[in-house]
Amino acid sequence: MTPSAEHPGAPAAWYENDIDRVLVSETEIREKTAALAKQIDADYANTDGLLLVGLFKGAVMFMADLARALTIPVEMEFMALSSYGQRVTSSGVVRVLKDLDTDIKDRDVLVVEDVVDSGLTLSWLLKYLPSRGPRSVEMVSMLRKPKALETGINVKYVGFDVPDEFVVGYGLDYSERYRELPFVGVLKPSVYQSS
Ligand SMILES: O=P(O)(O)OC[C@H]1O[C@H](OP(=O)(O)OP(=O)(O)O)[C@H](O)[C@@H]1O
Ligand code: HPA
Ligand SMILES: [Mg+2]
């Protein structure tokens, strides 16, 4: 599908030349978010409030949509971790750019991610968060790549399994661009091979 397929008649947008194809459309994202929220609502129905921990910057769009789709009360916290910078492969090193502002002791924590790719970011968090004494830690990610499955990280709630291609949109960037696109698309390799 081309980016404009969901908005027929709209003029070609600035990003159309950079996107090879749409992998997950706006509509699919909306429907999947509602389905995930329903599942999470049910699983946490008997707890006294869920703490969503979103990872800046990528998870911002998903965090905002998921929080509004849930019907149980939530609190929202953010951490900023970075391992990709201006690259299309992980640097292998997770940098903490912003830590939690709140005590998570005895809280039910749900980490909210845009994508689990090599799994490095989430495996680092899975070592870090338990040292702060939460009652439980689970994860939800809108996207998961095949490498993450190989690492055996248990992401309880997954939106879409996507192929091992560099994707952008719905929070995901290449060199800080494309985060605002409402869909997830495959970036043409020519965009990053030429820069
Ligand atoms: O499973 P991994 O290979 O660790 O990759 C996943 C992480 O990488 C991206 O973050 P990035 O470091 O690009 O920071 P950003 O969210 O600010 O773009 C993405 O948002 C995930 O947090
Ligand atoms: O495919 C991706 N796109 C953007 N950011 C990412 N961080 C890990 N994988 C990706
Ligand atoms: Mg990034």
UniProtKB/TrEMBL annotation:
The keyword Cell cycle does not apply. CDD domains: PRTases_typeI. It comes from the Bacteria. Pfam families: Pribosyltran (PF00156). Its main location: cytoplasm. It is found in: Cytoplasm. Residues 31-174 form the Phosphoribosyltransferase domain. Gene3D superfamilies: 3.40.50.2020. Its EC number is 2.4.2.8. One of its GO terms (cellular component) is cytosol. GO terms for biological process: GMP salvage; guanine salvage; hypoxanthine metabolic process; IMP salvage; purine ribonucleoside salvage. NCBIfam families: HGPRTase. Belongs to the purine/pyrimidine phosphoribosyltransferase family. This is Hypoxanthine phosphoribosyltransferase. It comes from Stackebrandtia nassauensis (strain DSM 44728 / CIP 108903 / NRRL B-16338 / NBRC 102104 / LLR-40K-21). The lineage of its organism: Bacteria, Bacillati, Actinomycetota, Actinomycetes, Glycomycetales.
